[in-house]
Design goal:
With 280 residues, this protein is α/β, with parallel strands linked by helices. It contains ten helices and nine strands. The strands form two sheets. A seven-stranded mixed sheet has the order 5-4-3-6-7-9-8, sandwiched between helices. It has a two-stranded antiparallel sheet with strand order 1-2. 37% of the residues lie in helices and 17% in strands. It folds into two domains: 64 residues, Orthogonal Bundle (Helicase, Ruva Protein, domain 3), CATH 1.10.8.10; 200 residues, Vaccinia Virus protein VP39 (Rossmann fold, 3-Layer(aba) Sandwich).
């Protein structure tokens, strides 16, 4: 089949499987198989693809039709202008989380030496993006699970950033168990979906590890731990910035009590309060 016909085949199959953005997905999958850019796919749309690559493409389309996330299938995803390896066992980077990173960068990008903790780091997209934008920051990326830690370390190595350190550990053990310097910034995109909501999520999300989604019965388990076992050790004039779920911002903000002289919530692109920031 020629490239144009393969694109049509992929789009139709993915669309019939009930997936959104079928045209986009079809293009991304064919880019992955051929190594062509989007522009090249259209320039060479009449080019025949060999039988082996055609089969490989159709296998990827089948995986997408089974509702496996596109990001897992192609093995990487863009975030804050960088490319991150991603796969089964770790949370997929999402564009709404870029607001969390931008908030932190705005606070620390003034040439000062700053210690940053990225709690529940996952792929490292948050902490690595901060380290990339703020070379004077020292970023510790703390992650519990081996599957996520694999991608976290791979992404750190590939970016070649010397101001990042991957730390394996459970944030429920608290700051004092890690032997790290006191932070100037704590940032986190923790699990915040309530346990009861997990089974109602769309099929793609259910491919992601439940431990990266489940925030406990009220969705607040991780925020309470951060408030009790991490926030007291934040340096003066430091900030905490966390992402939270729909309708959680006010509750999360109230968990972070004094001694903070400033506290506010930021909206995402859907005008939902998504980021809670407190300043000490």
């Amino acid at each position: 089949m020629i490239l144009l016909d393969l694109l049509k085949y992929g789009k139709n199959a993915i669309e019939q499987a009930g997936c959104g953005n079928a045209s986009f997905d079809s293009i991304c999958l064919l880019e992955n198989v051929t190594g062509f850019s989007r522009t090249q796919l259209f320039l060479y749309s009449g080019k025949e693809l060999g039988a082996e690559k055609e089969h490989a493409y159709k296998m990827l389309v089948e995986r997408r039709c089974n509702r496996e996330p596109l990001q897992y299938i192609i093995g990487k995803w863009a975030f804050m202008g960088l490319e991150f390896h991603v796969g089964t066992g770790c949370l997929i980077p999402r564009c709404e989380t870029e607001g969390l990173v931008e908030t932190v960068i705005h606070h620390i990008n003034d040439g000062r030496s700053t210690v940053v903790f990225d709690l529940c780091a996952g792929t490292g997209c948050v902490g690595i993006s901060i380290a990339n934008a703020c070379p004077n920051a020292k970023v510790y990326l703390i992650e519990k699970y081996e599957e996520s830690l694999f991608y976290l370390k791979r992404n750190i190595i590939e970016k070649g950033l010397l101001n990042t350190t991957a730390v394996q550990g459970d944030i429920f053990n608290g700051f004092l168990s890690f032997g790290l310097p006191k932070p100037d910034v704590i940032v986190s995109n923790p699990p915040y979906i309530t346990t009861g909501e997990i089974e109602t999520l769309q099929k793609e999300v259910l491919f992601e590890p439940v431990e990266a989604l489940d925030g406990g019965p009220d969705g607040l388990c991780f925020y309470k731990t951060i408030a009790n076992l991490w926030l007291p050790y934040l340096n003066n004039e430091g900030i905490l910035a966390v992402e939270c779920g729909d309708h959680q911002a006010a509750i999360v903000s109230n968990l972070f009590s004094k001694p903070f002289n400033e506290k506010y919530c930021l909206l995402d692109s859907n005008n939902t309060e998504r980021i809670v920031v407190v300043k000490k």
